[in-house]
Design goal:
This protein is mostly helical. The chain has 7 helices and no strands.
């Protein structure tokens, strides 16, 4: 009876060594309690910040890209947690203001003189 504690300790130590391939040691607190997918979702949410809006854009002005945006919006509308999905083809007011203030940087200048008719439209 005197050595029962030692026997129990050795048996538990041997079991720990045999099963240690399934034991995961980590310094990250989240990995202890949550799955890998949950941690990835948390990291994405952390990068995006706490926002009520997610903006999605598609490169190109083709009908295929517009169809893909409509397909994405249809899938998003099926999710009950999402309250509103909008598709806008017009530029935002901020973008319009940027174009207005920086037109000289964005335009292609040709070195021609303007006529009086062309200056009326400016």
């Amino acid at each position: 009876m005197k050595f029962v504690n030692i026997y129990i300790f050795t048996i538990l130590s041997v079991l720990t060594l045999l099963l240690s391939s399934n034991i995961k040691f980590s310094t990250n607190f989240l990995e202890i309690f949550f799955s890998k997918e949950s941690i990835e979702l948390f990291s994405v949410a952390k990068k995006l910040g706490y926002s009520n809006e997610i903006l999605i854009s598609k490169k190109g002005f083709t009908n295929e890209s517009l169809d893909e945006l409509y397909a994405i919006s249809k899938k998003l509308k099926e999710i009950p947690e999402i309250s509103n999905v909008d598709i806008s083809l017009s530029p935002s007011p901020e973008l319009k203001k940027y174009f207005k203030n920086n037109f000289y940087v964005l335009s292609n200048f040709d070195n021609t003189q303007l006529t009086k008719k062309e200056t009326l439209f400016l």
